[in-house]
């Protein structure tokens, strides 16, 4: 059989629109790659135009309150059910789901890793996923997993979806293309992508090698945080999220679909590309976001506020104000606070903090936390600036200072994060990380007024 190159037919774009994308977060979008493919005024006509099949993808329970209810109507060449034959279980031993507590691994501790190096073997989105931590329980749909991806090869005639989770993708190196049922998303470092639970896609390498971080959210979807008294603008603005226009393939080639379901991987064979949605409308869709459009709001006179001011997205846990996951961004910004120790304070947090460095230097850890690297400060474990950062910030001349060329982030969850065996034994763990606090000396002088 001769190999057919994937040919995507894409919806035309509105004048001035960002090529291939529609602006907004959680909008009711509509898009069609062929004229009149989308039924108007109804979802289920007796016969759809072009001989398409109508199919609903539900992202929330049918009965979810209407302000949270998410679903999308797809008009596709074949219904998805045609795609499934019997499933075989397959092994992806480095992609692990909670609950997963390895008896030989100690998760209690402050941990830091150098960037996980690329392998000498080619790796795809599926074979290159390396789970670092898991939290909660995939079966009860609470918690998360944090992964590193190392991808050098495109998926070819191989498709994937996760029934377990929504994926938040944070590239650090290289450029990826997500060809999804609902359209195409391309991302590079300093951008993110969100892939909803149940959405089928394949991942192509646009420029490799590719490395990045993934937060696999088992729980309720990521949403924008309420801004409270900040008002209607700043932080992440809705229009900066971009959802792809409809794009479909009409390709008949032997293909596979891999499904992550209840922590296990299953594969089935099909005879065509499942990316055959010609038109769709709804509010359950993938999107991308450029982190450089995040507008940070911070201290303009004194003190260091809680890092929640930098929340890009929050995934609720059911307990108001206590997130299943917060995605928090530490980007370049001005530091102007007077008479203030400006870096993060020393602290112990009820939530567990997994951080990744996308680019540059992070102020609390001027050495050792490098781009591509990660750190974990688990639930109720003390941490804070290293000795160098403490001495530097305690004695700095407090003029306005630009923290330039820096971008780190945090996946913060209310659940303890458990290290995988890969994180504890194979990944480049820095054994001497806790020594960064060892030289903090006693400065207490017992004399009032002497600082
Ligand atoms: O620990 C960290 O570096 C992350 C962090 C940053 C900050 O500004 C305040 C609290 C916090 O946990
Ligand atoms: Fe912290």
Automatic annotation (TrEMBL):
Domain Homogentisate 1,2-dioxygenase N-terminal, chain residue ranges per copy: 21-291
Protein name: Homogentisate 1,2-dioxygenase
Binding site for Fe cation: 347, 353, 383
Binding positions (homogentisate): 362, 383
An annotated GO BP: L-phenylalanine catabolic process
Protein EC: 1.13.11.5
Homogentisate 1,2-dioxygenase C-terminal domain: residues covered: 293-444
GO cellular component, one term: cytoplasm
UniProt record similarity statement: Belongs to the homogentisate dioxygenase family.
Enzyme class, UniProt record, top EC level: oxidoreductase
